Each structure stands twice: as C-alpha cells, then as structure tokens.
Amino acid sequence: MSDKPSSLSPDETERLCAKPLAGGRLSREEGELLLHKGDIHKMGSAAHEMRLKVANPGIVTYVVDRNVNYTNVCVSRCRFCAFSRDIGDDDAYINEYEPVIRAKVAEAVELGATQILMQGGHHPSLPFEWYLELLRSIKRDFPETTLHSFSPPEVVHFSALFGMPVREVLAKLRDAGLDSLPGGGAEILSDRVRSEVSPRKCTADEWIGVMREAHAMGMRTTATMMFGHVETYPERIEHLERIRALQDETGGFTAFICWSYQPENTPLGGTAVGGLEYLRTLAVARLYLDNFTNLQASWVTMGPKVGQLALYFGANDMGGTMLEENVVAAAGTAYSMTEAELRRLISAAGFTPKKRTTQYVLLE
Ligand code: SF4
C-alpha cells in the first residue's frame, strides 16, 4: 500500500479533525476519509492537540523492559512472519527457565527493567504446566517484575491445545503470576485480512474475546495494529473501530501501539510503507481512539527520528527500551536504545522523560 496524495484541503481536514477535539466522535466514514485523503500537517497538529488534552502535556513516558521469546517453534506460519520455525529446523529453539530465561530476566532487572514481555510461537507440544512453571519461577525469583506476557493468539492456542475455555486459561496463567497481556497478534482485526495473512491464527472475534475476558478479570492490556500489508484503508478503520468499541465497554486497554509491516525474510514479501504513512495512521488513530489516553511511538520499527516526530503526531509514550527484540529484527528492521539514549531522544524532542510502570504509574 503506497502513500497517497492528499485530496482533502487543509480547511476540510481541519473541520473533520475539529470533531473529536470538541468532544465528538469520528464516524467510520470520516476516519476513512482522513486516513485516505486528509492533509498530513493538519492531521498531525490536531492529533498533537488531542494528545495534549488527554495525556500529561509536558512529559513523555517509557518503560524499561525486555522482550523474552520462549520458543520460535510455531504451527501458525503467518505469511508476514520471519521469526517462526518448524520443529527440527536447525535454528528452532525452546528457552527453558534455567539457565536461559533466568539469566535474561536477571540482566534486565539489573538494568532497571520493571516489565518482562514474554511471547513465543505456537508450540504444538509443550505442556500447559511448562508455561505455568515458567511464570511461577520468574515471580519467585523476581517478585517485583511485571509479567506482561502472552498475547491473545497464544491464549487461544492454549485454549484449543489444552481443551480449556479462554477464561480458565487466563485464570491459571494469572494465578501462576501473569499480570497483564500485550496486545500482539492483532495485526488487522478483519477476518478478510486474517484469512489472507494468518489463516491459522485466532480470528478477530477471538482476539477481542480474549481481551474482553482479561478485562473482566481485572487485567489491563494493550492494543496493537500492524498495518501496511494487504489491508485496505476501510479495514484499518474497522480495526480501530473494534478496539474503540471494546474500550467503551471495558475501559481495560492502557495503550494503543501501531507499527508498519516489515517485509524482509517473510513469505508475504512486498515493501514497507514509509514514515509519512506511519505518521498519518498514528494521527488518525489518536483522533479516532478518543477513549484512549496513551499512544506509543514505534521507534523500534520506524527508527529514532520518526519516533521523535511521532511525539508530534499523537504519541505520548516511547514504549519500552526493548533490551532484546527478535521478532521484528527477524524481518529486517529493529532499532535498539539504552534507557539513557531513549531519555535523550525524548528531551531533544522537547519533553521531560518519565519512567513508568506497565500500568502507566510514574516512577519518578
Ligand atoms: S506471527 Fe506469531 S503466530 Fe504467526 S507465525 Fe510468527 S510466531 Fe507464529
């Protein structure tokens, strides 16, 4: 999907953007129009105005965290994925708690990490007890750490593999130490898109269903969107519509994060959308998701410079320091930064950096 020329005038764009700024709500049609044809400068300044209204205006938050992948073995074989492997592949792995994961968490905690974002492929035969013991072990040895782990497709995979309702899977994971769920695996919440790029992964309804159950149990989660592959603009808006509706219902999402598809080494291939397309999508997300406080800048995929620009297109949070990132890196693009570098980037963009918890509580 390529960047398209704007065809709404600046004044027309400004009129549409004024609606959420005045407390109204963008319709699907208005969202599509902005995404497709809105004037990028007007959308950016409206998204920034909205961000200044709903989130603390002088600061940009971030969390110190580490991504830990417990296995790259996956039966889903999503076409946009360069990370997964089959059992028996030379580079297929399972990371056990001792010694690998314990050492990774210890190193992260040493560097000030408060959050562990643990995710993996959909392994066909690891028993449920293996996952529960992993959570218990981390909580036993690192009780202060927030376990922000297992995205909805993994939960649906566990539910099918172990013959347990989603609610029971979540309850057992929570009892073993799980604190919150990352919103990964949402890609685009449209079954037309999912049947094309990830036919073996959970449906849009199942993704929403896991989040609804998690929120009902008092767990907070994030929501994500990976765009710029086979979806249309209306399907991007359909995605935003679904998460806005669930947020109306539960209020359980802490943040929204969007990033663009990274095609390198993937079966789907194609080309990555540019920074402009990312910024216009982010701006529309800020204006459309009027019930979200926090939107993250995706510097891991878009790079530090676009990450800084994102802070003027609706984002108020820099996400995690990502001490380790393997999934995006496998698809060719992943930037990494130390906490000091991240803070410098935020300050240079004109904001005060503030370290936070997974639940957006300020730590300084
Ligand atoms: S994106 Fe996740 S579920 Fe899909 S193939 Fe890759 S590891 Fe498996």
Write the layout of secondary structure elements.
Blueprint: H1 10-21, H2 28-37, H3 40-54, E1 59-63, E2 65-69, H4 97-110, E3 115-119, H5 128-141, E4 146-147, H6 152-162, H7 166-176, H8 191-197, H9 204-216, E5 221-227, H10 233-250, E6 253-260, H11 275-288, E7 294-296, H12 299-302, H13 304-310, E8 317-320, H14 327-330, H15 339-348, E9 352-355
Parallel strand pairs: 1-8, 1-9, 2-3, 3-4, 5-6, 6-7
Helix pairs in contact: 1-3, 2-10, 3-11, 6-7, 6-9, 9-10
The structure holds iron/sulfur cluster (SF4).
Iron/sulfur cluster binds at residues 74, 76-78, 81, 83-84, 121-122, 153, 198, 201.
Structural account:
The structure is a single chain. 45% of the residues lie in helices and 12% in strands. 50% of the residues are buried. With 364 residues, it is an alpha/beta fold. It has one domain: TIM Barrel, CATH 3.20.20. Helix 1 runs parallel beside helix 3 (40-54), helix 6 (152-162) crosses helix 7 and helix 9 runs parallel beside helix 10 (233-250). Strand 2, helix 4 and strand 3 form a beta-alpha-beta unit. The protein contains 15 helices and nine strands. The chain has helices spanning 10-21, 28-37, 40-54, 97-110, 128-141, 152-162, 166-176, 191-197, 204-216, 233-250, 275-288, 299-302, 304-310, 327-330, 339-348; strands at residues 59-63, 65-69, 115-119, 146-147, 221-227, 253-260, 294-296, 317-320, 352-355. Bound molecules: iron/sulfur cluster. The site of iron/sulfur cluster (SF4) has 12 residues, from loops.
